[in-house]
């Protein structure tokens, strides 16, 4: 008997089908792993299962009762999010018991008593910290375990969902966490375990469901399958169309040389970039790719190392210098870092080229409008009105505005950070074509992407990063498996000794 | 038939409300005109040259400072030391004119320069030490005010030369000279924010400081510049006030920080930055001044004046969001 079952779930966001006809069921005493690339639909499924999103189509049954009719059933699902979401300035005990009524504490709160009550729970979850400490004073792995304890200690739940719980855990903490998960499994709970790490899935899981492009690809008992099978399922069936977007006019001229760069989230990174090339950076979320690029661009500090651009040492830590010297960064966080939300489409386009649209008496409305119209046409931005505030445009159109704005000052280097995040397939293809065109016009492009398919189609070369270090470099047309291994940090035999050393 | 007609009327009312709640300058402008009409109807003293001139003189000072304050609000910051900058600059200028016998116009100019200096100090503290503007300027207003007290020992600086009196007391035609200064400041600042690159960057920074930095805008330099401009305009208001009173004293500009912020907000400038116009700020200050003027003309009990004026200011601040609420209700009704 299944304790949680999703039947024919379809979830549509404007322009994207995030989930299409997904059916999957979860059973008591079973650890069910879910895998898939970024954007495959895992998070959307979880949000449907926990009642955060309401699906356009389909049914969810909890203990064989329809949860869409009786939403209180969603209380039977405990969820531990990927990001740490504790009250950082409250104590461990307080974090554990909030909201107090859930934990059965009524009336006045006695801090001492609270801490005494917290001890056995902390012991059970192998969290070795004083319950009176503040949450931000304990280690990241303890915080992660505390989150799980908070979700799993009191709530009368049937299903525990863990969303990439090991992302920031060390090897030892991960093993500790696994022991706890196995304990919970023995109590007869169903566990949904989402992870990017294949070795963990095989160590812990009972069965696996693989997602790809919003569809469920397959479900299998883990004892019946092996690593190559999973990799094939994750990547194999995506090549619906064969158009590729990598630049065909790569020059031999080096434009950027990055030498032994070290910063907060990356360590000793070196690479070089050619004119007319699309250089892909692949890796998991948190591998340090964005931080590396933001540091090169001057937005984040660099601790050591050097950047050389066409024989000249690049000034670091100054975004104004970067922009005026032809380097642009197109951020992943489009809403907070890319657009000026309350300003019009026109103003968002002209902000980088105000000199060219000015006359003797200042910014000329006529010239500004003409420039904006030119960009909108060239980049096929769909907007009803130039004076519309940009926050009302779709993600894809916002992205095209940002690309248009960056390219109207003759840049030399463009850094795209997840340029197609949250935009639909059609607009994605448009963005790819734009990148290819720009590269073939002699611009060097760096493309950070967590989507394997995207990076394979667009990049002339791919650099893989894991935990802030470069773990591999491959050319266009390399095997997916090779890239996947590098970004998942799976050791090849020659590197084994080295990686172990770093872990320790 | 009649129902159709009603519907049509409903939507057109909703449309007008919608337009008004979107365009805050037009909204607040019409409120100002409405208030003045009401005042004219109910008090024979309102629409007299004498009253209007004193009203304009009041608007000039608060309006000037409000225009400056609106620049800071546009980048999502504020300066609570505007009043004390005005006082200190006024006292410095005043002492130069009197005890030091410097040419009064030169002393006037030096006073203005000192204002720029005080503003830039605020700006450097906020940007370089990454401090919160509100808390920093609360501290700085104490500091500037304290220095004023040390310099003056609490006494007014008197014997200001007659030569500069006309700047504070004089008129050109019917317009008081400080009011003309305020209008010039307004025009220059409006040109600055709408027509220049740096002006556009102010809005960009107010929209998103991170995005602005990523676009290569020198965010901190623009911020320091704005603090400098605010210091300059505050000092200008302070020096003109000295010329108006004929003496420089520590009490000048005590209510300017709060009034300038309230004026800007009434005028539709967002407290979080990025939205609004200096024109709104000056209209907002006109509303505040008309309120206190009308309260006196209507003969409201002296002890009630402050409470009534506060109440009306809160209503004025709430107006745009009230209109939005009414609009949403009427739209919902029309749909039902």
Automatic annotation (TrEMBL), chain A:
Q: Which domain of life is it from?
A: Bacteria
Start and end residues of each ABC transporter domain: 4-492
Q: Which UniProt keywords apply?
A: ATP-binding, Nucleotide-binding, Repeat, Transport
Residues annotated as signal peptide: none
GO terms for MF: ATP binding
Pfam hit, one: ABC_tran
Q: What is this protein called?
A: Sugar ABC transporter ATP-binding protein
UniProtKB/TrEMBL annotation, chain B:
Instruction: Tell me if Transmembrane helix is a UniProt keyword of this record.
Output: yes
Q: Which organism is it from?
A: Blautia intestinalis
Under InterPro entries, the record lists: ABC_transp_permease, OppC_N
Give the location in the cell. Cell membrane
What UniProt keywords apply to this chain's record, in alphabetical order?
Answer: Cell membrane, Membrane, Transmembrane, Transmembrane helix
- What is the predominant subcellular site recorded for this chain? membrane
Q: What's this protein's name? A: ABC transporter permease
Please give, as recorded in its UniProt entry, the membrane topology of this protein. Multi-pass membrane protein
**Record-annotated membrane-spanning stretches:** 25-47, 59-75, 82-99, 105-126, 133-152, 172-193, 224-244, 282-301, 307-326
Tree of life domain? Bacteria
Reply yes or no: does the keyword Membrane apply: yes
The Oligopeptide transport permease C-like N-terminal domain is annotated at 14-46
């Amino acid at each position: 008997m299944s304790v949680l079952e999703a039947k024919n779930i379809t979830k549509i966001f404007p322009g994207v089908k995030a989930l299409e006809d997904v059916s999957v069921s979860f059973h008591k005493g079973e650890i069910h792993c879910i895998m898939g690339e970024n954007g495959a639909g895992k998070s959307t499924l979880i949000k449907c299962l926990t009642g955060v999103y309401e699906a356009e189509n389909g049914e969810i049954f909890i203990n064989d009762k329809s949860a869409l009719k009786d939403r209180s059933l969603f209380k039977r699902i405990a969820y531990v999010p990927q990001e740490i979401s504790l009250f950082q300035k409250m104590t461990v005990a307080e974090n554990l018991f909030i909201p107090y009524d859930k934990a059965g504490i009524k009336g006045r709160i006695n801090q001492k008593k609270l801490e005494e009550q917290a001890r056995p729970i902390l012991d059970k979850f192998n969290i070795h910290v004083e319950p009176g400490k503040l949450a931000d004073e304990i280690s990241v792995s303890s915080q992660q375990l505390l989150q799980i304890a908070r979700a799993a200690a009191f709530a009368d739940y049937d299903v525990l969902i863990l969303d990439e719980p090991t992302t920031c855990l060390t090897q030892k903490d991960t093993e500790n966490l696994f022991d706890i998960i196995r304990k919970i499994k023995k109590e007869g709970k169903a566990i949904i375990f989402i992870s990017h790490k294949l070795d963990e899935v095989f160590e812990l899981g009972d069965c696996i469901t693989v997602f790809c492009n919003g569809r469920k690809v397959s479900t299998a008992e883990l004892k019946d399958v092996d690593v190559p099978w999973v990799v094939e399922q994750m990547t194999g069936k995506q090549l619906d169309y064969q158009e590729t977007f990598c630049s065909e006019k790569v020059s031999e001229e080096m434009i950027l040389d990055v030498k032994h760069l070290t910063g907060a989230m990356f360590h000793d990174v070196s690479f070089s970039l050619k004119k007319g090339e699309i250089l892909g950076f692949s890796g998991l979320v948190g591998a340090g790719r964005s931080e590396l690029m933001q540091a090169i661009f001057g937005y984040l500090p660099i601790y050591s190392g050097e950047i050389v651009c066409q024989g000249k040492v690049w000034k670091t830590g100054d975004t104004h210098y970067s922009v005026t010297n032809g380097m642009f960064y197109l951020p992943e966080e489009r809403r907070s870092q890319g657009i000026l939300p309350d300003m019009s489409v026109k103003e968002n386009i002209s902000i980088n080229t105000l000199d060219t649209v000015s006359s003797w008496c200042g910014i000329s409305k006529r010239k500004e409008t003409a420039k904006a119209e030119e960009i909108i046409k060239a980049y096929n931005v769909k907007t009803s009105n130039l004076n519309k505030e940009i926050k009302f445009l779709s993600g894809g159109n916002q992205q095209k505005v940002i690309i248009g704005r960056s390219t109207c000052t003759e840049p030399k280097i463009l850094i795209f950070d997840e340029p197609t995040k949250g935009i639909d397939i059609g607009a994605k293809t448009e963005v790819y074509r734009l990148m290819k065109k720009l590269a073939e016009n002699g611009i060097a492009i760096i493309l950070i992407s967590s989507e394997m398919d995207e990076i394979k189609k667009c990049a002339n070369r791919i650099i893989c990063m894991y935990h802030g270090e470069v773990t591999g470099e491959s050319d266009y047309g390399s095997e997916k498996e090779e890239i996947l291994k590098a970004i998942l940090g799976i050791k090849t035999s020659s590197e084994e000794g080295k990686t172990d050393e770093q872990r320790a | 038939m009649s129902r159709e007609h009603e519907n049509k009327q409903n939507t057109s009312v909703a449309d007008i409300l919608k337009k008004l709640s979107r365009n805050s300058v037009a909204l607040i402008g019409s409120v100002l005109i409405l208030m003045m009409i009401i005042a004219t109807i109910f008090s024979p003293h309102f629409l007299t040259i004498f009253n209007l001139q004193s009203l304009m003189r009041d608007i000039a000072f608060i309006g000037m400072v409000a225009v400056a304050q609106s620049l800071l609000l546009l980048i999502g910051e504020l300066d609570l030391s505007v009043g004390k900058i005005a006082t200190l600059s006024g006292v410095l200028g005043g002492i130069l004119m009197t005890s030091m016998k410097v040419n009064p116009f030169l002393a006037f100019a030096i006073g203005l320069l000192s204002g720029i200096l005080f503003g830039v100090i605020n700006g450097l503290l906020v940007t370089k030490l990454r401090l919160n503007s509100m808390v920093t300027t609360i501290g700085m207003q104490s500091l500037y005010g304290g220095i004023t007290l040390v310099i003056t020992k609490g006494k007014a600086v008197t014997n200001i030369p007659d030569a500069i009196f006309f700047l504070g007391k004089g008129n050109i035609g019917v317009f008081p000279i400080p009011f003309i200064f305020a209008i010039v400041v307004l025009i220059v600042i409006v040109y600055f924010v709408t027509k220049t690159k740096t002006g556009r960057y102010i809005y960009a920074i107010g929209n998103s400081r991170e995005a602005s930095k990523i676009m290569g805008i020198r965010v901190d330099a623009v911020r320091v510049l704005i603090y400098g401009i605010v210091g300059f305009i505050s000092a200008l208001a302070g020096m003109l006030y000295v010329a108006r009173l004929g003496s420089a004293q520590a009490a000048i500009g005590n209510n300017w920080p709060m009034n300038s912020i309230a004026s800007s907000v009434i005028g539709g400038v967002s407290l979080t930055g990025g939205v609004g116009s200096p024109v709104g700020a000056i209209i907002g200050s006109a509303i505040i001044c008309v309120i206190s003027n009308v309260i006196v003309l209507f003969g409201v009990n002296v002890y009630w004046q402050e409470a009534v004026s506060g109440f009306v200011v809160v209503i004025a601040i709430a107006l745009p969001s009230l209109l939005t609420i009414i609009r949403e209700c009427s739209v919902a009704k029309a749909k039902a």
